[in-house]
């Protein structure tokens, strides 16, 4: 096989809302929180969804209390579901079609996410047995996404994800060989000041870094698979060599023009809003004034 990629090549792994039918604005549930201004049950259209399947407040989502919408990415599953799996049918046509579309979307979105990670893993892995396994699993996952609604609903996504994650973990370890840092997989680091913590090459798979202070930190080849970066302060952070960084993670974080990004990722527009670099070194301390009385 030689590590060549088949079924995964050329697939759309970013959302194209113009070719969808607003599925992500209907199928998932969300609760009133810092990410969403209101409660919305699964299967009910968001009140901001217009008749043309576009968001009525798209340009003001953050200001109107919906930052969670700005960081959601279906990895291309929405247009695949609408144009491919359901051949252009619209969920608004009838309730039975709607329910099947929403249930199928839950499966397809997870598979598309795995396609994205597998594609990245193949890209960073040199030719050899591991790359062959990654490429074969990428092909297999691609074939699963091309199934009928019944076939997709029969997929054991959890079992498939577990198998894929083992391969992705191996790919991350191989890519970090010789420059691996601390193992902080799944670590709860909410709001923690990490500016003086050695994290270069760290394993941060699944770490919760909500609101963490990473200003000026050099992360080297850190593995950020699935790390929750909501509100994390990345001003001046060096992410240039980090592994498995997705655009949605950057969109959820804060940063500035000093933040170094991995190739192919863009600086989110909201980063430029009143954000300046704060040095990571300790603040300057005044020398003690010995003239003061003790």
Could you explain how this protein is built, in words?
This protein is mainly α and 294 residues long. Residues 1-9 and 275-294 have low confidence and may be disordered. The protein has seven helices and no strands. The radius of gyration is 22 Å and the shape is globular. The termini are far apart. It has helices at 67-70, 77-85, 95-124, 129-145, 149-153, 157-175, 247-252.
Offer a quick outline of the entry:
The protein is mostly helical and 294 residues long. 31% of the residues lie in helices and 0% in strands.
Q: What key attributes describe this structure?
A:
294 residues; mainly alpha; 7 helices; 31% helix; 0% strand; disordered N terminus; disordered C terminus
Percent of residues in beta strands?
under 5%
User: Percentage of helical residues?
Assistant: 25-40%
First-to-last CA distance: 78 Å
Q: How would a textbook summarize the main sheet?
A: none
Could you list the spans in which at least 5 consecutive residues all have pLDDT below 50?
A: 1-9, 275-294
Per DSSP, the total helix count is: 7
User: What general outline do the C-alpha atoms trace?
Assistant: globular
């Amino acid at each position: 096989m030689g590590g060549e990629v088949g079924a995964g090549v050329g697939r759309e792994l970013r959302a194209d809302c113009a070719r969808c039918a607003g599925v992500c604005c209907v199928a998932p549930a969300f609760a009133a929180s810092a990410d969403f201004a209101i409660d919305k049950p699964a299967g009910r259209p968001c009140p901001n969804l217009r008749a043309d399947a576009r968001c009525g407040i798209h340009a003001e989502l953050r200001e109107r209390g919906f930052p969670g919408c700005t960081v959601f990415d279906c990895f291309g599953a929405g247009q695949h579901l609408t144009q491919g799996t359901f051949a252009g049918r619209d969920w608004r046509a009838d309730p039975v079609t709607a329910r099947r579309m929403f249930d199928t979307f839950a499966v397809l979105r997870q598979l598309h996410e795995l396609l994205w990670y597998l594609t990245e893993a193949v890209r960073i892995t040199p030719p050899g047995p591991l790359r062959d396994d990654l490429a074969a699993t990428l092909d297999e996952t691609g074939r699963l996404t091309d199934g009928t609604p019944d076939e997709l609903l029969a997929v054991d996504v959890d079992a498939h994800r577990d198998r894929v994650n083992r391969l992705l973990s191996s790919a991350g370890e191989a890519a970090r060989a010789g420059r691996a840092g601390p193992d902080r997989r799944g670590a709860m680091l909410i709001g923690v000041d990490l500016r003086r913590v050695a994290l270069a090459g760290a394993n941060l798979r699944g770490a919760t870094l909500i609101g963490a202070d990473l200003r000026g930190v050099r992360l080297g080849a850190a593995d950020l698979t699935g790390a929750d970066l909501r509100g994390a302060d990345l001003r001046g952070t060096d992410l240039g060599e980090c592994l498995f960084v997705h655009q949605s993670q950057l969109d959820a974080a804060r940063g500035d023009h000093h933040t170094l990004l991995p190739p192919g990722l863009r600086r989110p527009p909201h980063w430029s809003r009143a954000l300046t670099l704060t040095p990571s070194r300790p603040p300057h301390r005044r020398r003690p004034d010995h003239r003061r009385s003790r």
